[in-house]
Write a structure and sequence with these properties.
Blueprint lengths: L9 H23 L5 H21 L9 H26 L6 H26 L2 H5 L3 H22 L6 H25 L4 H95 L3 H22 L5 H35 L3 H10 L4 H11 L4 H8 L3 H15 L4 H8 L4
Helix pairs in contact: 1-2, 1-8, 2-3, 2-8, 3-4, 4-6, 6-7, 7-8, 8-9, 8-10, 12-14, 13-14, 14-15
């Protein structure tokens, strides 16, 4: 039975209508899964089958315009190009890695080139029989692809080759491809159009249906996971709220601990600072009021104020705690060391206050300069020339020159004699 007004059999027409429906369904499904690129391959497979059924069903037809050669060329072009898509389809959609060579190279060499040869022979000789002799090459290539398909399935499933999914996939793949391997034989033998339509469409449609079924199963699993997630959402919300509360509590505790640690550091610093102020008061009482000491005391009181302001007004951030604590620790170390040096200085000043006048008279008697007096005082404290140079920021050689001048002025030859001669009488 043919469609009125055409050479198209009713079977290819029914398959074509079915493929139209599949294409529209896949286009709609693609909108709901825009990230799923494999759906595009399903659409292309259905489109290839649709074009194959329409072209081979209508052509050749003497009633249509155009030469018979052109119509035959188009009909066989559809027959050659449709199976070209099969290796690429199963390679991408079913992850059959061993089909990569056929997907990208084999079909061009063993299907498209034979089509060109077929078309050339048909054009030159005008004999369909002679041109069909080329169909032996696609048939042999189909057997090679079948072997590769078996190896791909073994490589994919390994010991799981006997599972339900692997058996289902193997059967459908062979039902989809074997008819196309037999198609060249059917054409060469002059087979019936109905048989050709059935064996080529049923297998590929089953293959397409299998992949669509996989899409549907994936969508159902996603829906089930979504339902479970919605059911568990209140529980997840409560867990998240508990975690947030715990983190908030931990952060508050860390903040309070950091603030307490800062307060302890401030108190530790204020103790030596207070002692330092007391020492300064004693020193000022002994030596007289000096502007630099008053300024130093004012700086310490300003530091007291800043530290109290930092702690009492809660101007503390855990973000800056490490930096602040490091500064305060360093300041504490420096102040403690300074306090020790100041204590030594005060003890020395207190013990030597009664003899300071005698030293001053000795310095005036020998006409010592201010720099020479500084060096003499360091020599009295057993400093070396190198250490004196570092303290006065002058070169060691310059210190040695000053010492030589001292020896000459006082009339001595070494530092011990220098100290004894400048020492006031008891």
């Amino acid at each position: 039975m043919h469609i009125p007004g055409t050479n198209m059999h009713i079977a290819p027409f029914i398959f074509a209508c079915l493929e139209w429906v599949l294409i529209f369904y896949l286009l709609i499904y693609k909108q709901s899964r825009p990230g799923n690129k494999k759906i595009i391959l399903d659409i292309l497979l259905a489109l290839f089958l649709l074009l194959y059924n329409l072209i081979t069903g209508i052509l050749p037809d003497p009633r249509l315009p155009g030469s018979l050669f052109v119509q035959l060329s188009l009909a066989y072009l559809a027959g050659f190009t449709t199976p070209c898509f099969f290796p690429y389809y199963v390679y991408r959609c079913f992850d059959l890695k061993a089909m990569k060579f056929h997907a990208y190279k084999g079909v061009f060499v063993f299907l498209l080139i034979p089509y060109v040869i077929f078309d050339t022979i048909l054009y030159i000789t005008g004999s369909m029989r002679e041109a069909q002799s080329v169909l032996l090459l696609p048939f042999l290539y189909g057997l090679w692809v079948t072997v590769s398909l078996i190896n791909s399935l073994r490589q994919k499933y390994g010991k799981r080759l006997h599972t339900r999914q692997s058996r289902e996939e193997t059967i459908i793949l062979f039902l989809g491809f074997i008819p196309w391997v037999a198609l060249p034989v059917n054409d060469y033998m002059g087979g019936d159009e109905l048989i050709a339509a059935l064996i080529t469409n049923v297998g590929f449609l089953l293959l397409l249906a299998l992949h669509i079924q996989r899409h549907i199963e994936t969508s159902r699993q996603e829906h089930d996971r979504l339902v479970i997630s919605e059911q568990n959402l209140p529980l997840y919300t409560r867990i998240l709220r508990l975690k947030i509360d715990k983190v908030t509590t931990d952060l508050g505790r860390i903040h309070q601990q950091g603030k307490t640690g800062l307060s302890d550091l401030v108190n530790q610093i204020k103790i030596p600072l207070t002692r330092l102020v007391n020492c300064l008061d004693k020193y000022i009482e002994l030596t007289g009021r000096r502007d630099e000491f008053v300024l130093f005391k004012a700086s310490i009181h300003k530091l007291f104020t800043d530290l109290d302001h930092l702690v009492n007004n809660n101007q503390y951030s855990y973000k800056y705690s490490e930096h602040i604590e490091m500064i305060i620790v360093n300041l504490s170390t420096v102040l403690k060391e300074s306090l020790g040096l100041l204590n030594i200085t005060l003890r020395s000043a207190t013990s030597s206050n009664t003899t300071q006048l005698g030293y001053t008279q000795a310095y005036e008697r020998y006409n010592l300069t201010r720099r020479e007096i500084e060096i003499v005082e360091f020599i009295q404290q057993a400093y070396t020339n190198k250490e004196i140079g570092k303290l006065l920021f002058i070169a060691e050689r310059t210190v040695s020159k000053h010492v030589e001048n001292l020896f000459h002025k006082v009339g001595v030859s070494n530092k011990i004699q220098l100290i004894n001669k400048l020492k006031p009488p008891v």
